[in-house]
Amino acid sequence: MSQMYDTVSAIKVQGGSQPIMEKVVKDEEIELIANETLKRKFSISPDSLKEFAVGYLLGEGLIRSLENINEINIEDHTINVQVDMEDFDIIQELVVGSDCFGGWRQKIEFVNKVESEFTVDKETIINSFNRLKESARIWQETGGTHVAALIYKDKFLSREDVSRHVAVDKVIGAGLLEEVDFKNSFIIYSGRMPADMLIKIARVGIPVLASNAAPTTSGYAVAQEAGVCMLGFVRGDRFNIYSHAERILL
Amino acid sequence: MSQMYDTVSAIKVQGGSQPIMEKVVKDEEIELIANETLKRKFSISPDSLKEFAVGYLLGEGLIRSLENINEINIEDHTINVQVDMEDFDIIQELVVGSDCFGGWRQKIEFVNKVESEFTVDKETIINSFNRLKESARIWQETGGTHVAALIYKDKFLSREDVSRHVAVDKVIGAGLLEEVDFKNSFIIYSGRMPADMLIKIARVGIPVLASNAAPTTSGYAVAQEAGVCMLGFVRGDRFNIYSHAERILL
Predict the structure, then answer these.
(1) What's the confidence (pLDDT) of residue A78?
(2) Is A194 in CB contact (< 8 Å) with chain B?
(3) Strands A5-14 and A16-25
(4) Which residue of A has its CA nearest to B30?
(5) Same domain for B103 and B132?
(6) So what's the pLDDT on residue A178?
(7) Does the beta-carbon distance from B29 to A105 stay under 8 Å?
(8) What is the pLDDT of residues B108-124, one digit of tens each?
(9) Which residue of A94, A161, B33, B36 pairs with A166 in a disulfide if CB–CB is 3.0 to 4.6 A?
(10) Catalytic residue numbers of A?
(11) In which band, very low, low, confident or very high, does the pLDDT at B93 lie, cut at 50, 70 and 90?
(12) Is B100 tagged catalytic?
């Protein structure tokens, strides 16, 4: 598939002005079709599409494990998947029916509490963000992506995307494919933390979400309820803990 | 309506740790219903809802002027509008049918070129961003909003929102209510610039969009095509011009 950016001509203005070549991040339209009936379009950075597909399906509750996927076929800008779920029709209706800008109020009742004894120490959080920044190659080139990483034992699975949601879908998918034990893992990333993001994390069973950005009130409510430790404004050697502080060793 | 943030208890970690009270930006679910048939939900900062409604309707092409709005009724979390358009059914289908994450490929053919001789000098761009930062009060408190401003003659209409799209809808709406001549105005804001944002700007007829963030390839394509001058990475005294540089006086 195509690379992650195009190079375009632009004019750089600072004091004077000069023509330059600039790298601009690619966003392409990808359609995900499950069982020929559930169809969703995404504006996405065109890489790691298999990881995106399985991560999205898991995060939306359309599958419970890789065993529920009978087939994935990625061709050009279309991802066709066949999934095997008894209650697919009911779940499909929920996913399609909820608007992407605000479906979380319907969804919150379907989120279970994350059952995990996982803890992580503050140095690991701070060091992981340094590594996240280094791994964000497309962001370094274009300034136009979000970056996420799923951390489990010695694995550090990072992905970038123009969409903060898709960046997280991709690392969840990568984790599923590498058989990460989600309840002993955590996610760090570069976006804000509203309810739909916390619901996704909680549904997968991940006990800690950390970001260099801000939470919102809806995300705060879900994090409290779902047993997720939410960290915000991780910058340099500092951060805020908004929920379930017992998961952080200070 | 409720204020723009809640105050919650959190733990601040830096060296040691201490309990603090933190302001967290509110995001609430708002439903916009047009002519009882077109229904869309948004996760939004709950202020300037009238501006949001008229700006969204104009930016999506559901109205052409304030005269097309017969009634707006805002009650709690629902905005009911009655609009008067001959081709409402056709347009409604386009708006509802396109997914919010990637409907722009269907929409691009409906975007007209911005017809305007408008120019702006580089000092005005740089000074406007300083003023934008000062006006971003909720961002200063919470770190959780996007901010946009529409600038026309001596007007500087700025609004904040958890959604970058809604921040822009709100300033477009504010401009429409204050009878701004859009073709001699410009928008500055804090978000990235993909196609759907450029299509909105172009449809309203605004000739310049400037951001402190990055463009994407889809936004670049639309800006070129639609006659919009797109500026990115406006930071301190520098910026990049990606399209229609003739609109910037250097």
Answers:
(1) 96
(2) yes
(3) antiparallel
(4) A102
(5) no
(6) 97
(7) yes
(8) 666 779 999 999 999 99
(9) A161
(10) 100
(11) low
(12) yes
